[in-house]
């Protein structure tokens, strides 16, 4: 009954969650917005940081300064992200491509 009110609740009977980071082709990933920045940094050798947010979705909200919409794009530390799916003002998945750079940070907000 509680799941009908608040949504899916994971327990020991549920199968493993969908992978947070899936490479869909070389250098292009499908990333769950709830993925922790530390985990994403470790997996893709990035240096994404935020004092306010600990997830990729939170970082994107901070970079854009608003709730993202589908197909909106943002780049941080060589990771180019496109919002793939938004549901009830929550961004769930990003398509992300990673370009390896050797120095500096670059932040671009696409119109």
TrEMBL record:
Alphabetized Gene3D superfamilies for the sequence: 3.30.465.10
Domain (Transporter-associated): residue spans on this chain: 22-100
Single Gene Ontology MF annotation: flavin adenine dinucleotide binding
PANTHER family named among the record's database cross-references: UPF0053 PROTEIN YRKA
Protein name: Transporter-associated domain-containing protein
């Amino acid at each position: 009954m509680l799941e009908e009110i608040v949504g899916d609740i994971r327990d020991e009977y549920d199968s493993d969650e969908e992978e947070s980071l899936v490479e869909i082709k070389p250098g292009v990933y499908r990333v769950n917005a709830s993925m922790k920045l530390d985990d994403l940094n470790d997996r893709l050798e990035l240096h994404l940081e935020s004092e306010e947010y600990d997830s990729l979705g939170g970082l994107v909200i901070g970079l854009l300064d608003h709730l993202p919409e589908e197909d909106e794009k943002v780049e941080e530390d060589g990771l180019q992200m496109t919002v793939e799916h938004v549901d009830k003002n929550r961004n769930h998945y990003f398509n992300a491509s990673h370009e390896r750079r050797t120095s500096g940070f670059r932040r671009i907000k696409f119109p």
